[in-house]
Amino acid sequence: MQFTETVLKGAYLIDLETRHDDRGYFARTFCAHEFEEHGLHTVVAQCNLSVSYRKGTLRGMHYLAPPSQEAKLVRVCRGAIYDVIVDLRPDSPTYRQHIAVELTARNRRALYVPPLFAHGFQTLDDDTEVFYQMSDFYAPGQERGMRYDDPALKIQWPLPVSVISEKDASWPYLSESA
After folding, report:
1. Which pLDDT tens digit goes with each residue over 14-23?
2. 45-171: what fold?
């Protein structure tokens, strides 16, 4: 695997190193030793699969508050997403800054999302499947979120929102939660 740290310290893009032969290719998608070498969480507490039927579906922006230490490894199995993470670590020099990356079944790229980062995505294709490896168990009492269209974040989503849950559409703005 090739690890590329983003401008948000601790968040990585992870590209596969494929080994090809007549059958196709083989690639490792997770290795605790390699993750540990980069200072990343190596425990996988649970795995989740998200399926979105319609292009333009928006999910997010979600995070778990302390004491949760939930890191995510996000990969697209089918389709494509515009994936956004926001640094919510109060002592970070990139506090409240975000990055956006395109993850697709074709580019096979993964995004490592550290704890205390909000995460959300918009589907770029119909019938998109997203697979998550989580470092901590879901803790409903720690669940938090922020508005996907918060003017303080200035996230430029690539498509009009076609589908969003009532819960995701009603998270507070940062100015309301500060």
Report:
1. 999 999 999 9
2. Jelly Rolls (2.60.120)
